Each structure stands twice: as structure tokens, then as C-alpha cells.
Amino acid sequence: MSKLTGKMKLIARYMDRFKTRLLQDDPRLAGYDLGSRQAEALLTLSRMPDASQDDLADVLMINKSNVARRLELLESKGLVCRAANPDDRRAARVRLTPEGEAILPVLWEVNRKWSEFVSQDLTPEEEARLEEILGAIVQRVEEFLKGGGAP
3-120 maps to which CATH number? Predict the structure, then answer.
């Protein structure tokens, strides 16, 4: 594994742990026992009301069974609800409950804190350059996953 790949993997793991710690330490979220991946699903649903489980799987880049498990857990916590899709009875639509919507500001705050934490020692120019480099990496991977270009 290249040093770059190792660093990117490490950053992803640290981000997950950092956010999970903030979520679990925040008294406004007491009793929810949320992890960063559950928070990510809630934030995604806030931008995609009435999404299907397939839509969520695509956006979260996880398989459908993982989405189903994640939603079941969030539903048991009263943060999301699933309802039959009138156009396709096999597909459920998912939305945030009022309780789920109420905690969104805390979840957005956790994301903001992560961004501030990782960029606090960067100059504005370094931050802009890093964003540009990461954007280029994301674009290249997205093009490959859509069937274009060789790895």
C-alpha cells in the first residue's frame, strides 16, 4: 500500500472515530447512542426527503442490506420512519421523524467541528489547494466508477 493510500485510509478512520466521540459525548444526543455512520444517514435523509432505501444505498455507497440495518436501528430510536411507496409497493420511502429533524443542527455542528479541527493549522491557501487535490481525486474515482477510464 502506498503512503498516500495509507494516509487516506487513516484519515477516514480518524474522521469516523472523531465524529462518533463527539456524537456520544454531546448531552443533547444523550440516549440516542449515535455513531458517525448513523448520523451520515440522517444528514443524507435531510437532503433527500422520502428517499427510497435504494437511493440511500447509492448515495451512502453501501449495500442495501447495510442500509436496511442502519434504518432499522434509526427507526428503533424514533429518528426515521418508513412508509410504503404508493407507486411501488415493494419499495419503502424513508423520512426523518420530527425527533430526527430536531437533532439535525447538532449533527451539522459535528461535521463543522471536524472540518475546523482538520484545517486549523492550514493557511487559507493550503486549505484551498488541499480541497482542489481531493476534488480531483474524487472526480477521477467517480469517472472510473461510472465506467470511464482505466484504473
Answer: 1.10.10.10
Q: Among all chains, which residue has been given the C-alpha cell 482542489?
A: 132
What are the pLDDT digits (tens) for 85-117? 777 777 789 999 999 999 999 999 999 999 999
Residues across the chain:
151
Distance of alpha carbon 103 from alpha carbon 28, whole angstroms: 8
State how beta strands 88-96 and 80-85 pair.
antiparallel
Burial class (CB in 10 A: 0-12, 13-18, 19+), 137: exposed
In this predicted model, which residue has the larger pLDDT, 98 or 83?
Answer: 98
CA-wise closest residue to 99 among 84, 83, 69, 77: 77
Domain ranges of the chain: 3-120
Calculate the alpha carbon distances from 141 to 61, 80, 124, 134, 144 in Å.
13, 31, 26, 11, 5
Residue-wise pLDDT tens digits, 15-33: 999 999 999 999 999 999 9
Whether 79 and 96 have beta carbons less than 8 Å apart is answered as yes
Q: With residue 82 as reference, give the H or E element that holds it.
A: strand 80-85
